[in-house]
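Comment thread on ticket #2218

A.B. wrote:
> Attaching the input chain for the structure job we discussed in standup.
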Amino acid sequence: MAALLDTLRVLASFQPPKVDLSSAPWDEYVDWAIAHGLGPLAAYNLEYRLGGAGAPQWAKDRLLSVYQGTANDNVMKLVGLKRTLGELAGRRIVVFDGASFAEALYPHVAFRPLPEIRLLVRREDLDGLTGFLASRGFHQSPHPDPAGAAMALADGRTEMCLHAGILGDSLAAEEAELLSRCLPLRAFGPSLFRLDLEDATLALCLHQARVGYQLPTLSFVDLRELLLGAPSLGGDYSRPPDFPLLLHRAKQWGLERALCCSVSIAARLFPEIAEAASRASPQLRPSTRSLLERLVVRPASTLGGTRAIRGGDRLRRLLTARRPRVPSR
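C.D. wrote:
> Ran it. Output below, let me know if you need it in another format.
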């Protein structure tokens, strides 16, 4: 596990150190990295930053093929998004998760695979957007979305997952505020937006908790860059997070335990975010923090094999349970 973790830290870095990786566990790492969405970034680092770093040729070739395929696939999906929705005006459609992160957090769009494109709209706008996409050749997917989208549509090339809110009916006012402060995504059209930095961070932590942390490690690279303020770029997320505001909204949304787990896992994987993770970590009772550390953080930050968390459904309820309402800021 230690060797796999060391390899992850080098090859998932945007500024990898010059090291010799000839003794890295390549037989284990390559399959694992590809499955966890880390293959394209690892390929770029090996090919263009580290001069191979002692990796065997078969490993470099396989990772490079994933990089090239991801680059083509991502460009196709993002260009398709612009062509499909770019002419809509007077709407508020929020691009979130991977499709927003690939452009706002990663130095190259090929580094962040996009299995699907996730869009957030008001519940009353869901049917209208579904009908519009149907007129553009998108049909309902027969497979339910594991992340809880209200509707999953596909045109044979791109899957679009439509979310009618992410916070739940009990937080309708907070959901409306979240939508009102979204940032324009002008490159994709006048009706497309992205979540602001603090909201994007909490939405990611909420998603991680809702799936019981059974998700690709790439998700924690996303969180790493959000907590650092996307220092490799100069876009919407390239600023230090407002940590007091982040903590306030986590309490307001009932996500303090989810935020604690997510930032703790990210800090275990990537020690360079220790300071930011400490500032983003809510104040919980020591007994609660100890329980979360034992039942969630340690299993979820263990690499390789199957990261099963016992009592997943019960823990998901624990991590996203609502607390008494907190005034907005």
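A.B. wrote:
> Thanks. Noting for the ticket: The mean pLDDT is 92.
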